[in-house]
Design brief:
The chain has 265 residues and is an all-alpha fold. It contains twelve helices and two strands, in the order αββααααααααααα. The protein has a two-stranded antiparallel sheet with strand order 1-2. The two termini are 39 Å apart.
């Protein structure tokens, strides 16, 4: 049976004989149900099956771009430049630059702002370091979800707080006579604390089946480094930074939800 339109000039009737306009008025009073693109699992907004089925696999979105993720893209370019300097400049010059950027106790007491910023301009181990790859992938994913300014805030929060949490005890231990005075000049630089905080924050924005393997794998790697006892202060700093990132879940999830709302508007 084909559908037929009602005669022109007459209101369409429902099977019960109620005009469509009245039905729409009644439905306006019914609370709107969450659509397929508005599900939330564990406080994290998740696309529904209809939205997910329309998404195409776009692997290039794993990498930063000047327009999509300007903070991560610009920062990655800067780290590439400093890594090239570290690899090809005169060793004496590189040592002087790293020493001047080190967040050891002596520099933190004298010029805290300068070294906290300067130490984040280098990648310990260069571009072949696992944290260099993690920087690109993690901060790109985080920036696409919460924006560049907020990603920078998470990164700096982990970098600064984890640095202070590891260096202040060193200074106190030297004052108490438990460590030699040379510990005040320990070379300390790199982006790893900020990356660890970014991993912690990003995990809270992922579905559970992605969140658990990410935290378990990264946490296991940090524990192995700590048990090896090669650089315990740095290893503790990574665990502290990861915890700082996890602590940002409530606010990061609000940022993500707000960003999804703006994108869907």
């Amino acid at each position: 049976m084909e559908r037929t339109a009602p005669p022109r000039g007459t209101a369409a009737q429902t099977p019960a004989g109620v005009p469509d306009a009245d039905v729409r008025a009644l439905l306006d009073g019914v609370p709107r149900q969450r659509g397929p693109g508005e599900r939330a699992i564990g406080g994290v907004p998740q696309p529904g099956p209809a939205a997910g089925s329309r998404r195409r696999l776009r692997p290039w979105r794993l990498l930063p771009t000047p327009t999509g993720t300007p903070f991560t893209f610009g920062y990655a370019i800067l780290l590439c430049l400093t890594s090239l300097i570290s690899a090809y400049a005169q060793p004496a010059l590189v040592h002087a630059l790293l020493q001047g950027s080190s967040t050891d106790v002596t520099h933190l007491v004298r010029t805290p702002e300068l070294v906290l910023v300067g130490s984040a301009l280098w990648v310990a181990g260069g571009l072949t370091s696992p944290f260099a790859l993690a920087f690109v992938l993690v901060l790109t994913a985080l920036e696409r979800r919460i924006g560049g300014v907020r990603t920078a805030g998470v990164f700096l929060l982990g970098h600064v707080l984890a640095t202070l949490a590891t260096e202040v005890p060193v200074g106190l231990a030297v004052l108490a006579g438990h460590l030699p005075g040379s510990s005040l000049h320990r070379l300390d630089y790199g982006v790893s604390f900020g990356v660890a905080a970014g991993i912690g924050a990003l995990a809270g924005l992922l579905p559970l089946w992605q969140r658990l393997p990410l935290l378990a794998g990264f946490g296991w790697m940090l524990l192995q480094d700590l048990l090896a006892y090669a650089d315990p202060m740095t290893n503790w700093g990574h665990l502290i930074a990861l915890g700082i990132g996890i602590a940002t879940w409530p606010v990061a999830r609000r940022w993500y939800a707000a960003r999804l709302g703006v994108a869907g508007a």
